[in-house]
Amino acid sequence: xxxxxxxxxxxxxxxxxxxxxxxxxxxxxxxxxxxxxxxxxxxxxxxxxxxxxxxxxxxxxxxxxxxxxxxxxxxxxxxxxxxxxxxxxxxxxxxxxxxxxxxxxxxxxxxxxxxxxxxxxxxxxxxxxxxxxxxxxxxxxxxxxxxxxxxxxxxxxxxxxxxxxxxxxxxxxxxxxxxxxxxxxxxxxxxxxxxxxxxxxxxxxxxxxxxxxxxxxxxxxxxxxxxxxxxxxxxxxxxxxxxxxxxxxxxxxxxxxxxxxxxxxxxxxxxxxxxxxxxxxxxxxxxxxxxxxxxxxxxxxxxxxxxxxxxxxxxxxxxxxxxxxxxxxxxxxxxxxxxxxxxxxxxxxxxxxxxxxxxxxxxxxxxxxxxxxxxxxxxxxxxxxxxxxxxxxxxxxxxxxxxxxxxxxxxxxxxxxxxxxxxxxxxxxxxxxxxxxxxxxxxxxxxxxxxxxxxxxxxxxxxxxxxxxxxxxxxxx
Amino acid sequence: xxxxxxxxxxxxxxxxxxxxxxxxxxxxxxxxxxxxxxxxxxxxxxxxxxxxxxxxxxxxxxxxxxxxxxxxxxxxxxxxxxxxxxxxxxxxxxxxxxxxxxxxxxxxxxxxxxxxxxxxxxxxxxxxxxxxxxxxxxxxxxxxxxxxxxxxxxxxxxxxxxxxxxxxxxxxxxxxxxxxxxxxxxxxxxxxxxxxxxxxxxxxxxxxxxxxxxxxxxxxxxxxxxxxxxxxxxxxxxxxxxxxxxxxxxxxxxxxxxxxxxxxxxxxxxxxxxxxxxxxxxxxxxxxxxxxxxxxxxxxxxxxxxxxxxxxxxxxxxxxxxxxxxxxxxxxxxxxxxxxxxxxxxxxxxxxxxxxxxxxxxxxxxxxxxxxxxxxxxxxxxxxxxxxxxxxxxxxxxxxxxxxxxxxxxxxxxxxxxxxxxxxxxxxxxxxxxxxxxxxxxxxxxxxxxxxxxxxxxxxxxxxxxxxxxxxxxxxx
Lengths: 477, 477
Fold this sequence. Notes:
- 2 copies of one chain form a homodimer.
- Chain A has 477 residues and is of the alpha+beta class.
- Chain A has a single domain (61-476), classed as CATH 3.90.1700.10.
- Helices cover 39% and strands 21% of the residues of chain A.
- Chain A has helices at residues 23-31, 49-60, 62-77, 88-91, 114-126, 133-141, 203-227, 232-241, 251-265, 270-281, 287-302, 377-380, 387-400, 424-430, 459-476; strands at residues 16-20, 35-39, 81-87, 99-102, 146-149, 162-163, 168-174, 182-187, 230-231, 311-317, 320-325, 332-335, 339-344, 357-358, 401-410, 416-422, 435-441, 449-456.
- In chain A, the strands form 6 sheets. A 4-stranded antiparallel β-sheet of chain A has the order 8-7-3-9. A 4-stranded antiparallel β-sheet of chain A has the order 12-11-10-14, sandwiched between helices.
- In chain A, strand 10 (311-317) and strand 11 (320-325) form a beta hairpin.
- The longest helix of chain A has 25 residues, at 203-227.
- The termini of chain A are far apart.
- The mean pLDDT of chain A is 94.
- The interface between A and B is large, with 41 and 41 residues.
- Chains A, B: InterPro entries: AllG-like, OXTCase_su_AllG_h-dom.
């Protein structure tokens, strides 16, 4: 084209904007019809100087990356097998007499939340230490029954669980790279309805604990004697492909193990067979504690690696929320968060809800629960309804995780692996904490489950753990 | 901008092309770096003038649209329940003595394909009409055992099935809008392995037929007596949400019914319980014939509507492929197609494969199989591997279907309903025929299943049916 042009200053007719940080600027350009690419960015650690320095220390150290890679490898390649079921007193290590193991960090009776108190009372009665829940309450209040965190005994328990020495425990073994296998434990799932793990202390809830002890535990032990060990996470991976997140939804994996065990259930002794079949056939949550025990067996092995920034314990007791990182015994504890993004049963709402509770958040550390939400239509219902909402939960974990599962593949996300290995550094840097899919218990009435939703882990304990790790590194040098 | 320009003819620097029809023009533009939007279009009915006139007749007639809407409604809202299991002789209507019911359109022994012949021999031995398969072959060859298409007896049978009067049949009832329920039938699934429906005539295959008759049929009948009727498609819909297409993959629905029936299995009499549990626990295909019987109960009700262009029968016998539309008794039959998009077991290939076989294509008429592929990671493996490939199969059905299921929702496709009601007019107009997800049998060795894949229904019978329908409409006026 030919032509001449005078020295005229021309304003651009077309504006393209790259906006970083606060979204309000992007919105203003968009409102005026301009093209804008918004980058969701915040200053690392919200600009907290001490945390930024801690991040610098931990990022600069190649030993941390090496340790993290090993932790991620262990979380990914461990093969935990369910080998038997036995009373806690016979298998759980370091278990003192007349002790209940409870969910979450250590806590004294005076601070125990209402649903967990009820569960403790029900367990105290089921153990025969008290004739009724009134007597149980008095025993517990005066310290005649000891309380210890299940996590300190290689054990994880869901929701408001408190378990006594007669509780039948799933025994899961992870051979690791050889040597003695890492053994982890979880109770048989109590099932839906009027049950102690939902914070109920009725006669039916106590009766369910006796059924587990007298029928369900011996039944699963007999099945495993015949069927042999169960590769817990192989079946879980099939369940994930069928839409389970294995935390809020465990239907597919429960049905897979039901089918797998069916020929062995059919030849159980008469006194076990029918009641166990009623229990299992009516319990779509059965696989939850299998997955939890397997996750604990992975994290136990991973936690042996020193000097990593990967979280290997995450647990709540309805009062406090705590984490540990690999290679340390120190818990970093803060207040338990509320459960948000919640759907409540009719007639209930946020005012009725107890705070986030249970050891099941161990699942979120190994690629299940929130990290697997992206393929779960059922979980999507709690996250906005669309599969894109569910995918966003998985993507959130990708931003704070150091690795990807080769075991749990998500068809709806291009068959990509779910994220594994929550890295303290990434959590503090991005301000994104793990989102945990979970049930909601009534906070004071003893009515049990009143809904389900998503709990966002509190930032404070991650920051505290990061500071402590960085201080430790500085001392080492 | 200012400037002057001489009268120069300028070639455009930027070309945007909209290409309709043959893709080669679009490719040529693209090869030269041009922008092109390609619209995949073909002349209706490939430009066949007689077919175009037939389409005009059937499109112009509002009675056809009304009939089609009613057919789609019936396919969508019918609620078929499994009510009992009983020997074919006791429940299947119009069943003459010494007769085998076989898959697909009517066929004489001389044209029966090898796998179906083997299945017929196995059934003849299992019925006690012959001492061994050699004698069975002679009886069949001289017409001493009659052959009738299962579809003519409100029955559908999968793959190379041939069933005798002692076969235990699933009895499914669809109450429709009231009056006598529509009853449809399908055999209990024989399971994977050395079985007659896969075209095997070994002693093990015969023994499996006896096990079904003596153990599995009575067991399911006893379970239903206690458990009550089973809403077959409610469970199927849950299975679809968990990645079943209910044709090639039936794992989730099978596990759901296993779990549902577990308490009743546990109290079966000793002589039934253990062998039935082994059969069911080892049979991920169990739900296939339940879904087929339910689909048949829907299409029987739909087929009562006169003057529709919706396909209500689609069946193959390994030699011929046939369809019927609602309101008529006439089959339109052509050669059975090969199974394409196939994955073969190691050591097998297309030369070993029998053509497409079985009545299971009834599933594709009610929103299962191909129409539900878009949410099935397992089926995706046969269609290219990605969920987008699977979605394309569902989209293909959308282009030839008159409606959408409100029952079968596909989470991976935005929770949209699967397409239902294959409309002859749309098939002929677009040239797209139903794609049927199916197993592949060995064509002559008697080795049974050698792979699985997708069969594309042949165009010819759809065109023939359309011509006949249009001719009928012209005569009516």
